[in-house]
What does this fold into?
Amino acid sequence: MATGIQLYKVATSASSDSNHSRLQVDANGVLQLVNSSGTALPVGEFYVYHELADISSAGSGWCAAPAAGTMTKFKSIISAAITVADAVLTYEINGTAVTGISTTVTQSGSAAGDVDTDTATAANTVAENDALEMITDAGSTTTSIVVGVATIERRA
It folds into this structure.
């Protein structure tokens, strides 16, 4: 059974203090909070979660995008060691593969709690209500739950 769960991190107000001095919008339209040392922190980043009951069985986890933005990262974690071969997770938005997301979950030395990450580089623009899909190639054997987390930066 695949599920999609959304978790939001949203700024509702900002004020000047010793740690955060101003809001700005970067060249890509991402709202940022800039602290007193000049470090820009994204505001409005949210996460979409997908869970598959078995990374070693061909399948997909689906979720509808709760808001528009740009997918920037993907992380996965497994619940048990996988064997025989690596498994590869890919990610699609409305049936189009997100460039940069082809996450290899290595079977050699794998264990519960192993985390793998990738960075989205293109074909990663998300509109509200887009179909978001995490896909396993089922390259491995041994049953293991896999949870994938896509990071999406909300647009200003």
